[in-house]
Amino acid sequence: MSNELTIIIPAFNEVKTIQRNIKTIMAQLSDDGLAASYLIVDDGSRDDTWGELTRLAAEHSSVSCLRLSRNYGKEAAIFAGLAEVPTPLCLVMDSDLQHPPRYIKEMLAIMRETGADVVEGVKLSRGRETLKYKLVAKFFYRAFHWLCGINLDGASDFKLFNRKAMGALKEFREGTVFFRGLVHWAGFKHETLAFHVDNREGDKSRFSTWRLIRFALMATLSHSSQPLLLPFALAAVFWVGGILLGGIALYGYFTGIAISGFTTVILLLLIQGALILFSLGIIGLYLARIYDEAKRRPRFFVMEKMIRHDAPSGQT
Ligand code: UDP
Ligand code: MG
Fold first, then answer.
1. What is the full per-residue pLDDT of the chain (316 aa) written as tens digits?
2. Which of 54, 77, 110, 279 could covalently link to 43 via disulfide, CB atoms 3.0 to 4.6 Å apart?
3. Which ligand is nearest to the Cα of residue 206, counting in written order?
4. What's the CA-to-centroid distance between 274 and ligand 1, angstroms?
5. Minimal CA–CA distance to 182: which of 159, 214, 154?
6. Is the CB of 10 under 6 A from ligand 1?
7. Ligand 1 binding pocket includes 71 (Cβ within 6 Å)
8. What is this structure's pTM?
9. Which of 17, 25, 93, 96 to mutate to test the pocket of ligand 1 (most atoms within 8 A of CB)?
10. Pairing mode, if any, of strands 89-92 and 5-11?
11. With a 6 A CB cut-off, is 299 part of the ligand 1 pocket?
């Protein structure tokens, strides 16, 4: 176990590849002359990922594991890991080798040389992804930038933290957490390392398009209240439109010209109805968030813990 660095790895249904991938990470670190502890968080996998992890931990004293009581999502899994880190540094990475371990040495060097509190991996290329996934991601980053003023294009969860930055992340009290957004919001001294995303080792992404859309919505709602101003902007547009149309109608009335009105009335009603429902929908989304947060439920429950504090430094 390293006294310096803990690597947090969330894993969900990764039975086929988890052992192999963690061993690849270990081999790379040992080639680079680095020592680390591994804290792998099983995010309520429905396959035997936990079994694989316990076998891995039996073999390697540097491996600790947490098992969440159900699938809470990657963000909660990362925070579950953060709560258990005993070392001054921690690195978060995916279990599928899309965050290539060959960059870890450089990230540590950047932190050492620049005195940064956070070193972020920034995606230069995105690896193999479906077109649908790419489009949803692109649209989300655009919308998020526009609404929240935070440009996350290229941002990843491949990040290295020192104790100060970790401490800050633990301070957040909200139940629904968007890791990348909170890291950005917390500030501190950031440095980046550009990296190429490798192809996924394992079956396809755990994020279906629908899950990705829900995720994007969660991230936006928890970082911006700008959409709540949209009904206001729509109302302003309607006021201007209303005054213009009202003027035309009155002009028609007084000059005796009947305006061909039925289609106009139907269209106006439909547009107005849609916009009112849209506005109500936005308010509903925020109300739902307030409802969820007001309950102050725990972010996750840990079902099983295998934390090692005993292994000597440098061991894998
Ligand atoms: N993951 C998780 N919980 C989930 C979904 C994913 O812990 O509910 C983990 C997954 O096992 C992997 C990482 O998060 O280690 C990234 O997942 P994935 O590769 O499927 O996502 P993508 O690379 O497409 O963003
Ligand atoms: Mg992946």
1. 457 999 999 999 999 899 999 999 999 999 999 999 999 999 999 999 999 999 999 999 899 999 999 999 999 999 999 999 999 999 999 999 889 999 999 999 999 999 999 999 998 876 667 777 778 878 888 888 888 788 878 888 999 999 999 999 999 989 889 899 899 989 899 999 999 888 777 777 777 778 878 888 888 888 888 888 888 888 888 888 888 888 888 888 788 776 667 777 788 888 888 888 988 999 999 999 999 899 999 999 999 998 876 544 444 5
2. 77
3. 1
4. 36
5. 159
6. yes
7. yes
8. 0.83
9. 96
10. parallel
11. no
User: Tokens standing for 2?
Assistant: 């390293």
Q: Is 43 in the pocket of ligand 1 (CB under 6 A)?
A: yes
Residue in the structure block whose two tokens are 């995105």: 126
Q: Nearest Cα to 103, choosing from 123, 87, 88, 86?
A: 123
In what side-by-side order are the strands of the sheet with 63-68?
190-196, 118-125, 155-162, 89-92, 5-11, 37-42, 63-68, 302-306
Tell the residue number behind the tokens 């972020």, with chain if given: 120
User: Which two tokens mark 163?
Assistant: 């104790």
Q: Ligand 1 center to residue 205 CA distance, Å?
A: 7
Task: Show the tokens assigned to 311.
Answer: 């292994």
